[in-house]
Design brief:
By secondary structure, the chain is an alpha/beta fold. Helices cover about 35% and strands about 25% of the residues.
């Protein structure tokens, strides 16, 4: 009997845990679900005889280590800064590890030790990063096989609200960790554009965003996602001139978020005394406006908004001009903003999210320029069975099953899923769950 430890029972764990438990009887698995919230665990395991609940504080070694020691493989859905605890345990007890998060510097520093131990620490094994890496490398390798030379690779992905559940002017609702949405773009971004390395600071990430068209969806805006350049070597595209990984949003979202940034509403480091204050007085202070009656006009001028800008109406919809009271206490602006958006962008239980991923690849084959567009669009069933949870969770679950069953020989080191031995079987199974791509060549 194999034992699988899943650390984390939050939003993204639903499909992962269901997949593991549905495969547990024939594989004789025990699936341990560890989290600090007993209710979250109970909801996910639904009294399965193959599941074991472990209510623990993941930062406490005495609670964590016995579970890692029992496991044959560990899947971490914890916040990125907490993966390192499990990673050190996995190295200590010689266990393979899977996460959906970006490789941190701490984890990267463990690469040699992980290789020497003959272990696989597979990171970035979710949606974005994850499915994007696997499908991108599948495309790249297929073009290389016919001696094609890739000169442009653009990869876009976004977790959005499905059109039938889209009933607010921001065209956005939370389908994944809200804190990550608030901090998106904070570190700026780097990418390659026509042979030139471009670096975009946080203050310009959401300004004047370019757009792409997606069949059945329409026009979506995109902003560059983190540091695309670090993937150039991993992706093996030596002739590339343009390379960018980007996040998709509706255009109105980008306009509104750009305004948030320039008014300082996303600042995590300031201090605001909320007692006796309202969202409007907070906005006035951040904008530097002393006259509430002229606040909208003041913001319009301060942000140099165009006549057709929807920013003021977006702010109005959030209630920023309605003197809604703040809870007593002291918070940063980013915390105040998060509290407001958690209420306004909440997804009702029956509402659906949507995940869109698109790769645009331009290459030369036999002297002819060719463009390949590969697109995936998936809608969730409801808030709990979301497209985000499905696309983040299933790749990890499938990899775990295939490693335990010997279908995939685990590569050694701290890795991302760019190797054919991993992405080929995983993508094949993902397609059975409706996670597949439509390709167009022109």
């Amino acid at each position: 009997m194999h034992t699988i430890l899943v650390a984390g029972a939050g939003k993204s764990s639903t499909y992962l845990i269901q997949y593991l438990l549905s495969n547990a009887p024939q594989n004789k698995w025990k699936v341990i679900i560890a989290d600090g919230d007993s209710n979250a665990i109970a909801e996910k395991i639904n009294q399965s005889a193959y599941a074991e609940a472990a209510v623990i504080d993941i930062t406490k070694a005495a609670q964590r280590e016995p579970l890692v020691k029992r496991a044959d493989i560990v899947i971490s859905l914890m916040p990125p800064n907490l993966h390192i605890h499990l990673a050190k345990d996995c190295l200590k007890f010689k266990k393979n590890l899977i996460t959906s998060s970006y490789i941190s510097d701490e984890l990267k520093g463990m690469d040699e030790a992980v290789k020497e131990a003959g272990l696989m620490f597979m990171c970035e094994m979710g949606l974005d990063p994850g499915i994007d890496h696997m499908t991108a490398n599948k495309i790249i390798n297929s073009i290389h096989r016919v001696a094609g030379s890739i000169y442009s690779f653009k990869s876009y992905c976004g977790g959005l609200v499905a059109p039938e559940s889209d009933n607010n002017p921001w065209h956005y609702k939370f389908s994944w960790n809200p804190k990550n949405v608030i901090s998106a773009g904070v570190g700026g971004a780097r990418y390659l554009n026509n042979g030139k390395e471009e670096e975009i600071p946080y203050e310009k990430i959401f300004k004047g965003n370019k757009r792409i068209k997606v069949d059945g969806i329409g026009s979506l805006a995109y902003y560059p996602n983190r540091d695309s350049l670090k993937y150039l070597e991993t992706y093996d595209i030596p002739d590339i001139k343009t390379f960018i990984r980007a996040t998709l949003r509706y255009p109105s979202f980008c306009a509104g978020w750009d305004a948030f940034i320039h008014l300082g509403l996303t600042n995590p480091d300031d201090v605001f005394e909320q007692t006796g204050q309202t969202y409007t007085t907070w906005l006035m202070k951040k904008a530097g406006c002393e006259d509430k009656e002229n606040l909208t006009e003041f913001i319009t001028k301060k942000l140099a908004l165009d006549k057709d800008s929807k920013v003021i109406s977006l702010f109005q919809w959030l209630g920023l001009f309605d003197d809604l009271p703040l809870k007593p206490g002291t918070s940063s602006s980013s915390q105040i903003l998060l509290g407001l958006l958690l209420e306004k962008w909440a997804m009702a239980s029956a509402e659906k999210d949507m995940v869109v991923m698109q790769h645009e690849v331009e290459y030369i084959h036999k002297g002819r320029k060719t463009k390949l567009t590969s697109t995936m669009t998936i809608k969730g069933e409801n808030r709990d069975h979301s497209a985000m949870a499905k696309t983040v969770g299933l790749p990890m679950g499938i990899l775990a099953r295939m490693v335990l069953n010997g279908k995939i020989k685990p590569p050694f080191g701290v890795l991302i899923p760019t190797m054919q031995s991993v992405y080929k079987p995983v993508l094949t199974e993902l397609a059975h769950y409706g996670i597949d791509f439509k390709e167009e060549v022109e």
